[in-house]
Amino acid sequence: MSRSISAPDPLPFDGSTRRDHLGRGDEVEYDVLIVGGGLVGAAVARDAALRGLRAALIDRSDLGSGASDGAPATSSRWLDDLLGGRWLRFARDAAERDRLGELVAPHGMIPSWLALPSGVPLAGLRAAAGRLAAGLPRTGRRADEAVATHTTAGARLCLETARSAHQAGAAILPYVELAGFRVERARVRGVHAFDRLTGTEIELRARVVINATGHWSERTRGLRGDRPRLTRLEKVVRVAVPGRDEAGAHRAWPGGSVEIQRGRLVCSVDVGTFEGDFDRPEAGSGEVALALQAAGEQLGRTLPEPSEAWAVLRPEPLLGRRGTAVVAEDDDGLITAAGGELADHRITAARTVARLARSLRVDGLHLGACPTGALPLPSSEGLGRTAKHGQAADAGLDDAGRHLGPDVAHHLLHTYGAAWVEVAERCVDAPEQAERLLPDQPWIAAEVEHAVARDLALTLEDVGLRRLRLRDAPADAAWAAAPRLGERVAALLGWSSFDTARQVERLRAALRERSPPES
């Protein structure tokens, strides 16, 4: 029996809808329950819900708060394929990034030029790159020196993907922590969990459970006992330094990359297999120095002291090509999807749902084709190439945006896509909503209300780190703004003065975590 895709009544993407879903608890049996609210988990929920399945997603923290928030966007696997002459693989990866940048998420995918290292056979590159460079703004780059690519803010793309899943009917449940699996007749059929915001125990039933917990995936599988490993962990150290790359290109080399993000350079270096605390990987002083040295050699200059330094863990397949995702099913029916590059998340989700479809076929439920390759995210609908290239068309700056100033209007457009008008319109009848949260920075008060009412922000860290991305602001200004930001969020969520002070301290602690280590 097939199930048609229906459009459910729109529900607010906020804490009230989350509470309603959790209140039903064990009364509902989902077709699929995804554990892990990173980019892959959100993409699986979106794909499944758009195919008509009853889907739910849980995460012990905020959406996109793990590796999706800090993973390198420039793919080092591209260079492996280029240097190895694997043109077909390179072209496929390029086409998927192009699809994301042109259709699925144009405002969230930033076009740029990836400067090529020595050793790339240029004739093969020209043949493989094809249309990828078409339509990008001119940068003075010769076609045989660089290739067009896209990078993205992973946490924002994750949030937009989760919202699309929500609009298709999925239950999106952050701050629900997995405690164990429900097992019926030796098959995983749901989870035991608890609400981290209230401490309430929760039972969720599902026909199939998908483990999309990223670098925690082996630990999650281990809740069902010892089993052969699927992945190993690779540690990536990232450092942010002031300044811009005058050449206007991202750079990548085997084992590292440099990206441009909001007027700063973010350098990433692979430092090898990781063994240690999964929950709090740290960037050591020697690793930070290595990242600065490697990036400086690529850019041909000495880099200044970093403003931030942090570590990201990336699962890699024990068997198979580096940078590819693992999609596998254990004997008890638990499906695991782990690894892969950030820009491959949609393809990984499609592979995972295809595996899910085989499990559901036993119950007579047949799924249609994957729709996500031709369906823009809601925030991307109606956006054209102008938005993709980082310049708002004058026609898009209506009266709600013009009085805010061009820097604010452009910031809103390229953060929220088509939904930027919703944020701007909050300022029309309430001019205080146009107040800047930080001096000389484009963030405004209306974004706080939007984060809580429309972006499922439940804590101050949700608002400050992943909705507003205050880590991209000057560190002193972000630190000073935390108490005022806490007061605004407290008024929306009804916190006591004690709770507000605790939320402010947690935000400040999170901002401190990325401080460079002492030598």
General description of the model:
It is built from 18 helices and 15 strands. It is globular, with a radius of gyration of 22 Å. It has helices at residues 15-24, 39-50, 67-70, 76-83, 87-104, 122-129, 154-167, 217-222, 285-299, 345-360, 385-388, 399-402, 406-416, 420-425, 446-454, 460-467, 475-493, 497-513; strands spanning 29-35, 55-59, 109-115, 146-152, 171-174, 176-184, 187-195, 201-211, 231-242, 249-253, 256-261, 264-273, 308-317, 325-329, 335-339. The model is unreliable at 1-9, 130-141 and 385-397 (pLDDT under 50). A hairpin with a 2-residue loop joins strand 6 (176-184) and strand 7 (187-195). Strands 1, 2, 5, 6, 7, 8, 14 and 15 form an eight-stranded mixed sheet that branches. The chain is α/β, with parallel strands linked by helices.
In short:
The chain contains 18 helices and 15 strands.
Please tell me how large the radius of gyration is.
Answer: 22 Å
User: First CA to last CA: what distance?
Assistant: 63 Å
Largest sheet: 8 strands, mixed
Structural class of the secondary elements? alpha/beta
Number of strands: 15
Low-confidence stretches: 1-9, 130-141, 385-397
Helix proportion range: 25-40%
How large is the count of helical segments? 18
Mean pLDDT: 83
Secondary structure layout plus pairing:
Layout: H1 15-24, E1 29-35, H2 39-50, E2 55-59, H3 67-70, H4 76-83, H5 87-104, E3 109-115, H6 122-129, E4 146-152, H7 154-167, E5 171-174, E6 176-184, E7 187-195, E8 201-211, H8 217-222, E9 231-242, E10 249-253, E11 256-261, E12 264-273, H9 285-299, E13 308-317, E14 325-329, E15 335-339, H10 345-360, H11 385-388, H12 399-402, H13 406-416, H14 420-425, H15 446-454, H16 460-467, H17 475-493, H18 497-513
Parallel strand pairs: 1-2, 1-8, 2-5, 3-10, 8-15
Antiparallel strand pairs: 3-4, 6-7, 7-8, 9-12, 9-13, 10-11, 11-12, 14-15
Helix pairs in contact: 2-7, 2-10, 5-6, 16-18, 17-18
